[in-house]
Design a protein that fits this description.
Blueprint (H helix, E strand, L loop, with lengths): L5 H31 L4 H4 L5 H8 L14 H15 L10 E3 L5 E4 L3 H38 L6 H22 L1 H12 L14 H6 L3 H28 L5 H20 L1
Antiparallel strand pairs: 1-2
Helix pairs in contact: 1-5, 1-9
Length: 267
């Protein structure tokens, strides 16, 4: 039995590292694009029933009353303010105030425990964005290195197969565990145990206007869709910059050359 060559194993490791950095880069760029669109909140507002959720639970809120009197545009503004504050290490969360349709101030949007939780989210987002930025530069550096060495890129079928396998595994996990259970488990694992993260609709305008965790599921779908678009664009860019034949062409050329080498050896 023929042992795999060191060159073959080295190429495999390069391809795995390149693909991993590519996926992280696509997730990072799609996250930045989604953040620029307020995470699709205006787009998801009606399909996910956020208006109905607000009209049902906001009148029951005695801590922050009157939110049902706000306009849709005011809710979009408040969500955008939360998004900006999260990407700015939580700065500005305490200053968010909501107004009725005539512009009259009704109160402060967030309670102290909600601000603590959103600051935890801001710290988590900051760590992810640092990792994403490192992945971006790492992927670009690896692309330059491969270009200088004349190494082919991973084949498109192998990249698609790996992506589909990861998506299928994630989808199976969500289906088995359940979206809600997985959402709550992740919160328990990620955030400090003494920091509150669960808020009832009738006691939290933040949860009411987001219909948590329903909104986060919609954002996850948009994020994944955008990530796949960026993945395709980045791969096309890398193929355009790659020197010589692609990995697909190289593999095909190698397979065609094998019979010729076999005939020469028999002679």
């Amino acid at each position: 039995m023929k042992r795999p060559s060191l060159a073959g194993s080295g190429r495999g490791l390069r391809h795995v590292a390149w693909a991993l950095l590519l996926v992280l880069t696509a997730l990072y760029l799609s996250w930045r694009a989604l953040a620029a669109m307020d995470f699709g909140y205006p787009l998801l507002y009606r399909p996910l029933g956020l208006e109905q959720n607000i009209q049902t639970y906001a009148p029951r809120n005695t801590i922050r009353p009157g939110f049902q009197l706000t306009s849709r545009e005011e809710r979009f503004r408040l969500f955008a303010g939360i998004g900006r504050a999260i990407r700015n290490d939580g700065q500005g969360l305490a200053g968010l105030r909501y107004h009725d349709t005539r512009g009259r101030e009704l109160g402060t949007l967030l309670t102290a425990p909600e601000i603590v939780h959103l600051q935890d989210v801001a710290h988590l987002v900051a760590r992810f964005e640092r990792v994403g930025l490192l992945a971006l530069f790492g992927w670009l550096g690896l692309c330059v290195w491969q270009r200088r060495r004349g190494w082919p890129l991973p084949t498109l079928p192998s990249l698609l197969l790996g992506t589909v396998a990861v998506l299928a595994a994630g989808g199976l996990l969500v289906a088995v565990v359940g979206p809600g259970a997985l959402f709550y488990w992740l919160h328990e694992v990620i955030f400090p145990p003494d920091h509150p993260w669960f808020f009832y609709y009738q006691a939290s305008l933040m949860s009411t206007m987001m219909r948590a965790p329903v909104l986060f599921g919609g954002i996850a779908v948009l994020w994944l869709a955008l990530a796949l678009v960026f993945l395709a664009l980045l791969y096309a860019l890398a193929r355009r910059l790659a020197p010589g034949p692609s990995a697909d062409a190289a593999a095909l050329s190698e397979s065609r050359a094998m019979p010729r080498r076999a005939r020469r050896s028999r002679r």
